[in-house]
């Protein structure tokens, strides 16, 4: 790992609370997950039996609307968009016993005001802003609508989540091809070979 990547990881870790949890974040070419056995929700009909989406907010749509939403590069057909105009947040609920510790998504135009929050099975919350995700991949959270990246988040071998909350305080947080999996430690996945780009230690807070 380069010194720049180490410094990025340390700067993220500095923002953590005393009960921090380390997650492994890397990017891949996409438009889908490279993790073997991952179940993918593509918003065009492919679903995961253990995963359900709240319908009170957000929108499953296609195409782009100026000032409201932009389809992520690499996304085809429908995608999920979250924001004040469309509705926010969107909650993703995982059935008990699924034991998912990996989440992947194709995300376009990441912004600092986009947030992914994992509620873990011990009721603690692990949260990432768009800025933190972008920093882990040596990117900037500038809302670049030409930028489509597949983000992979591995929480740990024994760190499982039962909910994901996608939030955006401004328009918008667009994503597609959500992937879920229970995976072993990163070494057995060959994550370094997939191009590990960052490590983030983000604070947990008790719900």
Question: How would you sum up this structure, described in words?
Answer:
It is a single chain. This protein has 207 residues and is mostly beta strands. The protein has one domain (3-202): Jelly Rolls. It is 13% helix and 39% strand. It contains four helices and 14 strands. It has helices at 3-13, 130-136, 186-189, 191-194; strands at residues 21-28, 39-41, 51-53, 59-61, 79-82, 90-94, 102-108, 114-120, 124-129, 148-154, 161-168, 173-181, 196-202, 204-206. Strands 1, 2, 4, 5, 7, 10, 12 and 13 form an eight-stranded antiparallel β-sheet that branches. A hairpin with a 3-residue loop joins strand 8 (114-120) and strand 9. The longest helix has 11 residues, at 3-13. The N and C termini lie far apart (34 Å).
Which key terms come to mind for this protein?
207 residues; eight-stranded antiparallel beta sheet; Jelly Rolls; single chain; mainly beta; six-stranded antiparallel beta sheet; 4 helices
Task: Furnish the topology, listing elements before pairings.
Blueprint: H1 3-13, E1 21-28, E2 39-41, E3 51-53, E4 59-61, E5 79-82, E6 90-94, E7 102-108, E8 114-120, E9 124-129, H2 130-136, E10 148-154, E11 161-168, E12 173-181, H3 186-189, H4 191-194, E13 196-202, E14 204-206
Antiparallel strand pairs: 1-10, 1-13, 2-12, 3-6, 4-5, 5-12, 6-11, 7-10, 7-12, 8-9, 8-11, 9-14
Keywords: Membrane, Signal, Transmembrane, Transmembrane helix
Pfam families: PEP-CTERM
Transmembrane segments: 183-202
What integer is the average pLDDT?
82
Principal-axes geometry comes out as globular
Series of secondary-structure elements, N-terminal to C-terminal:
HEEEEEEEEEHEEEHHEE
Question: Remind me, CATH topology?
Answer: Jelly Rolls
Uncertain segments = 1-20, 191-203
Main sheet overview? 8 strands, antiparallel
Coarse structural class = mainly beta
Distance between the termini: 34 Å
Q: Structurally, how many domains make up the residues?
A: 1
Please bin the fraction of helical residues: 10-25%
Keywords: Membrane, Signal, Transmembrane, Transmembrane helix
InterPro entries: Ice-binding_C
Domain Ice-binding protein C-terminal: 183-206
Transmembrane segments: 183-202
């Amino acid at each position: 790992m380069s010194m720049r990547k180490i410094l990025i990881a340390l700067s993220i870790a500095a923002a953590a609370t005393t009960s921090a949890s380390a997650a492994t974040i890397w990017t891949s070419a996409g438009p889908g997950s490279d993790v073997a056995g991952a179940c993918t929700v593509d918003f065009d009909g492919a679903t995961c039996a253990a995963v359900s989406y709240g319908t009170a907010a957000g929108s499953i749509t296609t195409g782009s609307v100026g000032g409201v939403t932009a389809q992520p590069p690499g996304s085809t057909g429908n995608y999920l968009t979250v924001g004040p105009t469309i509705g926010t947040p969107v909650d993703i609920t995982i059935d008990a016993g699924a034991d998912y510790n990996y989440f992947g998504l194709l995300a376009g135009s990441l912004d600092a005001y986009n947030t992914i929050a994992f509620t873990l099975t011990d009721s603690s919350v692990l949260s990432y802003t768009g800025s933190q995700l972008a920093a882990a991949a040596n990117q900037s959270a500038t809302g670049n609508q030409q930028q489509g990246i597949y983000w992979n988040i591995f929480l740990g071998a024994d760190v499982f989540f039962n909910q994901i909350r996608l939030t955006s305080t401004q328009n918008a947080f667009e994503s597609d091809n959500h992937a879920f999996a229970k995976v072993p430690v990163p070494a057995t996945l060959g994550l370094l070979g997939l191009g590990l780009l960052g490590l983030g230690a983000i604070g947990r807070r008790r719900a």
